[in-house]
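Support case: user asked for a sample of complex input and structure output to validate their parser. Sending the pair below.
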Amino acid sequence: MTRTIAAREGAGVVQLEAEVIGNVAAGSYRHLTLVTPGLAELARPGQFVALSVGDGTSSMLLRRSFSIHKVSPAGTYGGTTEIVVAAHGAGTRLLTALEPGESVGVIGPLGRGFPLPAQPVPCVLVGGGYGSAPLFWLAEQLRERGCAVEMVLGAASADRLFGVVEARRVGDGVTVTTDDGSVGVRGWVSDVVPDLIESTGAAVVYGCGPMGMLRSLSAIADEHGIVAQVAVEEAMACGIGVCMTCVMPVRDESGTTSMVRSCLDGPVFRGDRVRWEAFEDGYCRVPEDAVGAPTVVR
Amino acid sequence: MSTPAPAVDMSVDIGGVRLPSPMMTASGCAANGREIHRFIDITALGAFVTKSVKLDPVSGRGTPRMAETPSGMLNSIGLQGPGVRAFVEKDLAWLHSIGARVIVSIAGNTASEFARVARTIVRSRYASAVAALEVNISCPNVANRGLVFACDPAGAHKVLTLVREEVPRGLPMVAKLSPDVTDIVEIADVVLRAGAHGLTMINTTLGVAIDTDRLRPHLVAATGGLSGPAIRPTAVRAIWQVAGAMREGRIRAAPIVGVGGVRHGTDALELVAAGATAIQVGTAAFNDPSAPHRVGVELEQLVADRGFERLADVVGIAHERFTA
């Protein structure tokens, strides 16, 4: 059932009609396993896949992007890719309803993943809701490099956490927070992260989850003089860098701000490079000093 | 199961330039080539159409700048781009290096800015890669709504006249028209009189989506351009009207590049039968990056299935078979 649509040599990305071989509940989410030959071998933690909704006649044209939870290059089915999907709207409801044996259009791996430290330094990995999905695979790779890994999983309530059991397997320490206190520490991940950075002497914070959480993680990292590497969520139409819808204001090394595509230049950015102040009330404005920004008439 | 290769002459003539295939990307839907070249060989297309390039760098608008709508999407990107000098040195250089046939889409805030962009392109050292210029007088996402030249006959005429002065003989100039006008035939007439060698129809059509949670416009710019299969009947209508006027001798005959909601070969065939010589695939590429190539394969098969040996024999055929 799996069929390769496009896989140009050296492109680093494949386009497939992928067979679904698993769809199981994980709290409020669905954990999908897809047969993706050629994709698993290329993927790194923090990269994502873009799934189509329905077939070539679907009225929902835009792909939905999900960070890769894990890949298995050589299982019984050949390479597989696992993702975690929350049913938010009509498109994700169709995806979470996919049954084993059905197929779904997949493009991946996409974007730049999490950079790994050259030295074995302590790291704090923070996931909000199902945003934690890519962190377990990242934790394994960090520990293979000798890094101590402290994990923080936060959500509104216990059912919206993802991967607590897996975190205990791959992390040296695990802290759980919920807004309603239904499990773990009552409050936000940002309430516990400063103490963890100090107690572990962390050199890097990795984050994946809602933008507000990533913004506060970046601020906490700044206050501690360390680097935050955050995987952002921006609305994407294509995921492959052609539509220009997922842009964000990001500074480059020289301090110049541009509206960059989060699908190509991200989704992982250094927290101190993102112009968080441009985000407000569901909008992101173009900073006045960004390259090519509209001239402000006063 | 093997299907015999259909023997259809798919070559097309765009204002004197022969292209081996009618298939093109649509401006703004394939960036400047590198990204989509990971999925399909863009040198195999009839032409690669770039994102519209302006004189200076443009940041585009803030976000959200996109909303999904039934069988379509709204965008208010705002012609984000690096400016023509960076475009030439980076993007056109790359397209030239891989041997792509390029249609450069140009835009500007003023008629003379269009002309300066055109001049920079045609005088660049990579100009040999340029098969044509597409003059985007119809982008709805510029900062000033009054700048949609394609809604203003005098403005459209001025842009085409000034660009024409920069374009060397043999390089076609194709004007991209907006469907958001009272009479698209009138605008087509004006730009053809000003020297356009062909028309691209259609650009996106203006729309608004409301965020029903926040009860405010979804896009930060409020309005956006609607694209995707939702607008295909509008594209077919525009092509039908303008091709009809050409056939009746009311306006000068010129090739029409059809664009708007093409996702499958049958969609492309609709536009061709209505009068389009070539086909651009836009929003469908966001869903399926292989679509600009795939649609061409499907179109060729459909033309063969209907007993034609040349795509050119199908162009506008619906006018001949319409007997109302």
